């Protein structure tokens, strides 16, 4: 069994508010720069789409997964690490075009391409569905990112622990799309890679990872 991940004791997690949205956008753009800008353009319309999306995340809805954005802030109070965490109730969809209700519409924003957004979200959603199905409630960590200058400080671990504790309170499993240098952190927080390649029909664009629900 791998050692349990531990966040640095001084790391404090809080929830983002509408006042943080402009800084969350900058953090998001820092994650998707270079090739990622073709999907998430760093333009006025790209900003408008993200503003809508973060506003959507912070609003209440009975028809789509409820979303929270836990963050770690620097000494000046600016978010420098964030997660986008959805509580998916039984029967709520996370596949196909559900990203449009989870994030926001883009048909009135010329810089944004629905085709490119679909190409980004929908292949991962297929793998997600193969792991948790469409009926089981679960917590879905859709994004976990830390500003480069603040990495290796335990911030990602603290956010993962926040999300998994939230899942445990609900009695839900927790799902995320893994990959790259963050895999070991996910594993230390109890996530295990799921083999869906045969059912997926090839190699998915991410590594589907599941943390089982806590034993009652």
Fill in the keyword field for this structure.
globular; 8 strands; 216 residues; alpha+beta; 7 helices; eight-stranded mixed beta sheet
Structure in a nutshell:
With 216 residues, the protein is an alpha+beta fold.
Note down, in words, how this protein is organized.
The chain has 216 residues and is of the alpha+beta class. The protein contains 7 helices and 8 strands. Strand 3 and strand 4 form a beta hairpin. InterPro entries: Acyl_CoA_acyltransferase (IPR016181), GNAT_dom (IPR000182), Trichothecene_AcTrans (IPR052523). GO terms for molecular function: acyltransferase activity, transferring groups other than amino-acyl groups.
Structural class, from secondary structure content? alpha+beta
Residue windows where pLDDT falls under 50 for at least 5 positions: none
Radius of gyration: 17 Å
- Give the SSE string: EHHEEEHHEHEHEHE
Strand content: 15-25%
Summed up, the helix count is 7
* Fraction of helical residues: 25-40%
Overall strand count:
8
Largest sheet: 8 strands, mixed
N- to C-terminal distance: 21 Å
Average pLDDT across residues? 92
Shape: globular
Organism: Anthostomella pinea
Pfam families: Acetyltransf_1
InterPro entries: Acyl_CoA_acyltransferase, GNAT_dom, Trichothecene_AcTrans
GO molecular function: acyltransferase activity, transferring groups other than amino-acyl groups
């Amino acid at each position: 069994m791998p050692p349990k991940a531990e966040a640095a004791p001084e790391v404090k997690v809080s929830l983002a508010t509408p006042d943080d949205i402009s800084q969350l956008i900058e953090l998001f753009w820092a994650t998707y720069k270079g090739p990622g800008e073709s999907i998430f353009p760093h333009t006025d319309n790209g900003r408008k789409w993200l503003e809508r999306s973060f506003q959507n995340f912070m609003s209440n809805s009975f028809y789509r997964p409820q979303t929270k954005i836990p963050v770690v802030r620097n000494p000046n109070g600016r978010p420098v690490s964030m997660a986008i965490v959805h509580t998916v109730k039984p029967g709520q969809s996370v596949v196909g075009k559900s990203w449009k209700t989870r994030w926001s519409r883009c048909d009135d924003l010329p810089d944004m391409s629905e085709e490119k957004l679909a190409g980004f979200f929908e292949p991962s959603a297929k793998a997600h569905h193969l792991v948790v199905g469409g009926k089981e409630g679960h917590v879905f960590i859709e994004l976990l990112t830390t500003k480069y200058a603040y990495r290796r400080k335990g911030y990602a671990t603290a956010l993962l622990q926040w999300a998994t504790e939230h899942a445990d309170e609900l009695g839900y499993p927790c799902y995320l799309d893994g990959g790259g240098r963050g895999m070991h952190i996910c594993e230390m927080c109890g996530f295990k890679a799921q083999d869906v390649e045969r059912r997926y029909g090839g190699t998915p664009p991410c590594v589907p990872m599941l943390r089982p629900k806590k034993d009652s």
